[in-house]
Design brief:
Elements lengths: L2 H10 L29 H8 L4 H11 L11 H13 L15
């Protein structure tokens, strides 16, 4: 999938706020989607690949700057790389704001 098609899939259409209702992962232990550092995530990503709302999940994670877990079949680092590729391709993706932790 090219950058333009990917951008369109993720960001051109409005995301249905009820997308989570249709997520394949809704009946799977959520802890699996938050693996420890360097723990393999292949099985979890396979669940995402078969999910009917995978683009909505990925778009939500990117739009909110989700820094933890696997969303839409991608880890945080993979999502960062994707955002860089899209921005380098001239696509406008809002900059994420870092959430400050309360003291």
């Amino acid at each position: 999938m090219g950058a333009a098609e990917l951008f369109s899939t993720l960001f051109v259409h409005e995301v249905d706020p009820d997308w989570r209702v249709f997520a394949t992962c809704r009946e799977i232990d959520a802890d699996l989607f938050f693996p420890e550092d360097r723990q393999p995530a292949g099985q979890v990503k396979a669940v995402c690949r078969s999910c009917p709302v995978q683009p909505e999940c990925l778009a939500t994670a990117i739009a909110t700057g989700e820094a933890h877990g696997i969303w839409g079949g991608m880890t945080y680092r993979e999502r960062l790389r994707l955002v860089r590729v899209l921005r380098d391709g001239g696509f406008q993706i809002p900059r994420w704001r870092r959430r400050r932790r309360a003291a």
